[in-house]
Amino acid sequence: MTKYRVQVDAEKCIGCAQCYVACANKVFAIINKKSVPKNPDACVGCRACIVKCPTNAITVMPRDIYAAYARFYGS
Ligand code: SF4
Ligand code: SF4
Fold first, then answer.
1. Is the CB of 55 under 6 A from ligand 2?
2. pTM for this one?
3. Is the model's pLDDT at 40 over the cut of 70?
4. 4 pairs with which residues across the strands?
5. Which keywords accompany this UniProt record (predicted)?
């Protein structure tokens, strides 16, 4: 089970590929000019992608925290 949940808000993503370049673990692919977290199992939670994204399109959350959050607020 992957440790982190990586999400890209496609509405916010402008396809600049900064996240693709920043991620040393090759989590992202750029598909149809949008970033897609194709390889979330490789995420180590370093947040480099979040820092680089100009539109705040990326969310990286530890799975256990996400699960608790989803239980509380709904997913
Ligand atoms: S948090 Fe780090 S390892 Fe995870 S997707 Fe972003 S840059 Fe890659
Ligand atoms: S850095 Fe942000 S805006 Fe640029 S491709 Fe990645 S998710 Fe999209």
1. yes
2. 0.89
3. yes
4. 62
5. 4Fe-4S, Electron transport, Iron, Iron-sulfur, Metal-binding, Repeat, Transport
